[in-house]
Design brief:
By secondary structure, the protein is an alpha/beta fold. It contains 14 helices and 24 strands. It binds uridine-diphosphate-N-acetylglucosamine (UD1).
């Protein structure tokens, strides 16, 4: 099993990094492209494990896909036929494969998808996705580890209120609704930038969508979609991860191909800690002056535009370094503190009470063998390893490589000593 071996960073940063296309936008947009038999061209698709699994799933379901990894360009459309079933071994590898359900219902009137089950960061049910499909006329059956949805007479529009602004449920319902009969309204919809990117691609395919980026999305069903060209938005979580890396290392980091508007909650927290964050068109510069000691802050994760749950683990590592006690409350997922046990092995003093972590900052951490418990917990280990004394070995890097493109290369270009060992 591959691992990263990371050395404590001793210099002061003065570097530049380019952000990749956004994984969490690429996955639903790949699904959207298979709503048409014409071939769409999508640029800036990151070469990541999750993207390649989604590609395999969509091919299994009948898509024609060519992915040029060098140019990060994908041509994709529905080729006809294919299965209506996303089997367990595929869904188990990639939870976002449940997004195939909306597409299957729209194109085949039938979807059989393995229940995603639990995952390390929480139960992550799909009840909100299913309630949406049921309101649109699908008959839902569950059993033997599978969810079956049937819409033999096609889907119709409906008004759907989401109990929680779930990103996945909003995307899945959008995918099903764009070619349904009549109007669909999603109330209390997720308003993450990835939803806006998906809506923008669907609109350029001929869909009639308004309100994406707010909590009410209206979709007027159309008969047919056509091909479109699209460039995936920059990855806002990768951007925020590098902003945290800049804060932990000190000095100056210029982050290009970044959208300042997407990362405002993280910018605000870094400024509160003492970093100087400058926003330019397509670029963010994070600086920590030499005489500034960053201070701890309190953080509560929330749906967008609140502080992103994906940055909770990386910020736990950052708060291990800053002076004072930091408090992080996780409200989105129920079990997202898996990185804490690993940080404690490095010498961190963190207490967990329910959904809140109390982090005593300013203690020295020491490098040791740790595990990436999930994707963002893996980034937390990178951050901790950058300032821990000596060498940190990170196992289970499969999780990290699901979501961070060329991470060792990008870190090395910034002067970090990191090796990937098979
Ligand atoms: C997406 C992102 C993930 C991010 C999360 C929250 C992708 C591929 N992943 O995940 O990186 O951390 O948004 O910003 O885009 N829930 C239900 N019932 C449902 C659906 C969700 O109870 O039917 C709950 C979940 O268990 C969780 C919360 O809602 O507690 C948020 O989940 P959701 O927004 O759906 O996250 P994902 O789309 O899975």
């Amino acid at each position: 099993m591959a691992k990263y071996v990371l050395q404590q960073y001793k210099g002061r940063l003065n570097s530049r990094v380019k952000i990749s296309g956004c994984k969490n936008a690429a996955l639903p947009i790949m699904c959207a492209a298979t709503l048409s038999t014409e071939t769409s061209t999508i640029s800036d698709i990151p070469d990541l494990i999750d993207v390649n699994i989604m590609k395999d799933i969509l091919v299994h379901l009948g898509a024609n896909i060519q992915y040029d990894k060098a140019s990060k360009t994908m041509t994709i459309g529905y080729g006809g036929n294919g299965s209506f079933e996303a089997p367990y071994d595929m869904v188990d590898k990639l939870r976002a494969s449940v997004l195939s359900m909306g597409v299957l219902l729209a194109t085949k009137g039938m979807a059989k998808v393995a229940s995603p089950g639990g995952c390390p960061i929480g139960a992550r049910p799909i009840d909100l996705h299913l309630k949406g499909f049921a309101a649109m006329g699908a008959e839902i059956q569950q059993g033997h580890g599978y969810v079956m949805a049937m819409a033999s007479r096609g889907l119709h529009g409906a008004t759907i209120y989401l109990d929680f602004p779930s990103v996945g449920a909003t995307e899945n319902i959008m995918l099903a609704a764009v070619t349904a009969r009549g109007e669909t309204i999603i109330d209390n919809a997720a308003n993450e930038p990835e939803i806006v990117d998906l809506a923008s691609f669907l609109s350029s395919m001929g869909a009639d969508i308004s309100g994406a980026g707010t909590d009410k999305i209206r979709i007027q069903g159309v008969n047919k979609l056509h091909a479109a060209d699209h460039t995936i938005m920059p990855d806002r979580i990768e951007t925020e991860s590098f902003m945290a890396i800049a804060a932990i290392l000190g000095g100056r980091l210029e982050i290009v191909n970044a959208i300042p508007e997407h990362v405002k909650p993280v910018t605000a927290k870094l400024r509160e800690m003492g970093c100087v964050v400058t926003e330019e068109e397509g670029c963010i510069v994070v600086e920590t002056p030499e005489n500034v000691n960053l201070k701890s802050v309190d953080i509560k994760t929330l749906p967008h535009p609140g502080f992103p749950t994906d940055m909770q683990a990386p910020f736990t590592s950052l708060l291990c370094k800053t002076a004072g006690t930091g408090i992080i409350t996780e409200t989105v997922f129920e079990n997202r503190f898996l990185h804490v046990q690993e940080l404690k092995r490095m010498g961190a003093n963190i207490k967990i009470d329910g959904r809140t972590a109390y982090i005593e900052g300013g203690l020295p951490l020491t490098g040791t063998k740790v595990k990436a418990m999930d994707l963002r917990a893996g980034m937390a280990m990178i951050l901790a390893g950058l300032f821990a004394d000596g060498q940190t070995e990170i196992d289970n890097i499969y999780h990290i490589e699901r979501g961070y493109e060329d991470l060792p290369e990008k870190l090395r270009s910034m002067g970090v000593e990191i090796a990937r060992i098979d």
